[in-house]
Amino acid sequence: MPDTSPAPRTAGPTDRRSALHADAVAVLTGWTPTSPAAAEAAGRTLDLLAAGPVATDRSHLPGHVTASALVLDSTGSRVLLCLHGKFHRWVQLGGHCEETDRTLAAAALREATEESGIAGLVVDPVPIDVDIHRVGCQGGSLHHDVRFAVFAPPGAVERVSDESEALGWFPPDRLPEPLAGGTVQLVAPALAALARRATAS
């Protein structure tokens, strides 16, 4: 008698993004915003996430969730930024979420590791900011960027990736120009996250 049982269903892109989507909703629902602008952006991002896991994929034209990281050295005296290869401004590390990312914090950590070449980075799982800005993805879309503080180990040495023209360490109160909009507002909450980590350890 022929086998009539259904073939195993292969997980599609939406299935693979369900954990990331659930994490994004949980993180932003329970988050205490770091500024009024971040509160508004977080609310709009939760509205976007009502579309389901597809809202974490770059193909979603109304907008998609991304993750980025402001990398601090172990003392908090320097911030690592990259000179972006496309728009030629200094900016924090980050980018699109991938199907392998299970959480937003993991996506931010992966991006920071790939773009900095630094092993042993540690991410604080509590966002330091949410920002929405227009980008050229798929002919025009919005990035709903959830931002995290990431801490480098002592003696970390960066390595420029294909996505940036340069990497540089800068004092938090003397960031380089031209600077991407929204980057400077990450410094204070990132330093606060580092202070909390030092107190907890």
Offer a few descriptive terms.
201 residues, alpha+beta, Nucleoside Triphosphate Pyrophosphohydrolase, 8-stranded mixed beta sheet, 24% strand, globular
How is the topology of this model organized?
Blueprint: H1 13-16, H2 18-29, H3 36-49, E1 64-72, E2 79-84, E3 90-91, E4 93-96, H4 104-116, E5 122-123, E6 129-135, E7 141-151, E8 164-170, H5 187-200
Parallel strand pairs: 1-7
Antiparallel strand pairs: 1-2, 1-4, 2-3, 2-8, 5-7, 6-7
What would you say about this model in short?
Residues 62-192 form the Nudix hydrolase domain. By secondary structure, the chain is an alpha+beta fold.
Looking at how many chains there are and whether they match, the oligomeric state comes to: single chain
Query: What number of structural domains do the residues give?
Result: 1
Q: Approximately how much beta-strand content do the residues carry?
A: 15-25%
Major beta sheet, specifics? 8 strands, mixed
Q: Give the overall silhouette.
A: globular
Low-confidence stretches: 5-11
Explain what the structure shows:
It is a single chain. With 201 residues, this protein is α+β, with helices and mostly antiparallel strands. It has a single domain (13-200), classed as Alpha-Beta Complex (Nucleoside Triphosphate Pyrophosphohydrolase), CATH 3.90.79. 28% of the residues lie in helices and 24% in strands. It is built from five helices and eight strands. It has helices at residues 13-16, 18-29, 36-49, 104-116, 187-200; strands spanning 64-72, 79-84, 90-91, 93-96, 122-123, 129-135, 141-151, 164-170. Strands 1, 2, 3, 4, 5, 6, 7 and 8 form an eight-stranded mixed β-sheet that branches. Strand 6 (129-135) and strand 7 form a beta hairpin. Helix 2 (18-29) runs antiparallel to helix 3 (36-49). The chain is globular, with a radius of gyration of 18 Å. The chain starts with 12 loop residues before the first helix and ends with a helix.
